Amino acid sequence: MLEVIVFSTLNGVLYGLLLFMLSSGLTLIFSMMGVLNFAHASFYMLGAYFAYSLGMHVGFWPALLLSPLLVAAIGAVVERYGLRRVHANGHVAELLFTFGLAYVIDELVRLVWGSVPVAYLAPESMQAPLFTLFGTDYSLFRGVAMLIAILMFAALWFLLKKTRVGMMIRAALTHGQMVGHLGHNVPRLFMGVFGFGCALAGLAGVIGGPLLNTEPGMAATLGPIVFVVVVVGGMGSLPGAFYASLLIGLLQTFFVAIDVSIGEMLNTVGFSVDPYGEVTGITLANIAPMTPFILLVLILIFRPRGLMGELEYE
Predict the structure, then answer these.
(1) How many CB atoms lie within 10 A of CB 39?
(2) At what angle do helices 60-78 and 40-58 cross, to 10 degrees?
(3) Which residue of 64, 119, 193, 238 has the smallest Cβ count within 10 Å?
(4) How many domains does the chain have?
(5) Distance (Å, rounded) from C-alpha 182 to C-alpha 185?
(6) 71-87, pLDDT tens digit by residue?
(7) Band of pLDDT at residue 180, cut at 50, 70 and 90
(8) Is residue 11 situated within a structural domain?
(9) Residue 77 domain-assigned (yes or no)
């Protein structure tokens, strides 16, 4: 039982940190630009595929740096020549634009890399065990992934709260004309923010690709969960996204690991029910994929501003 608890905790934290790496860029874009980017998970997928292709020529570590830069460049072009033009038509137009962009990127990935998973793996040096517990190795790459996610959180928090750039960009969101009169190029500022947010998604793809499957459905798999993280944590709240990611990662991992039925749990607390009935026979593992969305519904009912959000949704 101790083995299950230890490895479920480690895997849950790892999965949660991967969710945070992906959701951090979306949180950054929304908090600074007010844009909810439906194509964000598609940029995550591009990061994984770019790293796979570049890694075959230059190696994993150069690809770790180059892939997010490529994704950032694509994101900047999308903002400059697409999103900026539809911004004047309001948030609905932005949502529809990014929603369509997600489908375009997904189809382009299928055309270029095919419809089957690619063999994107961590470098051999990173597959060595970081430590061994209960006869099971925990790879060095998983530890590096956790470290990168934690450093990302610290760097983003410092950028948003402690630097002049962060304050200037936040001011541009609510008082764009005044910031422009002070001599700052607000459109270029927003283009940089959007590109940087996409780069964070690309970095998450580089790290998450070897840990999860790198295939055309990876954006559709994690995309909805990322939006759950952003809403549960509080729209625009970076610490909220961090805590929500860990909460969802741990809940899903432990539900799969424990895998007891509802009937068995009810019997444990004193009820007498059939543990193999149509409803009581449902296991926690069956519920695990629904866990983020159940949490989303509960948050919207009882705390609409999220765990650490500042404003109520209208």
Answers:
(1) 26
(2) 140
(3) 119
(4) 1
(5) 9
(6) 999 999 999 999 989 98
(7) low
(8) yes
(9) yes
